[in-house]
Input
Amino acid sequence: MPASNGADSGDPRSDFREAGSHLSLALEPALTMAIWIVIGVLLDRWLDTTPWLVLAGLCVGMASMCVQLVRGVKKSESRGKKRTPHA
Output
């Protein structure tokens, strides 16, 4: 197997690693949002406060989703800068 020098070598493992990072960038915010909404629904049922805690969960989920997206994009950009040589 040829040694990798950072360029695209066609190695399926590196392709899967890259796809995994992009997949996590998409899934983590969506799962975070869903978890906060489910927490709100469960607390609403337990405390009989419908729909207030679902709405609070929605707001917290949206805020944390935005934070995760910004962090993920910055992380992805920094990885891209490390791979791409500057002219």
The mean pLDDT is 81.
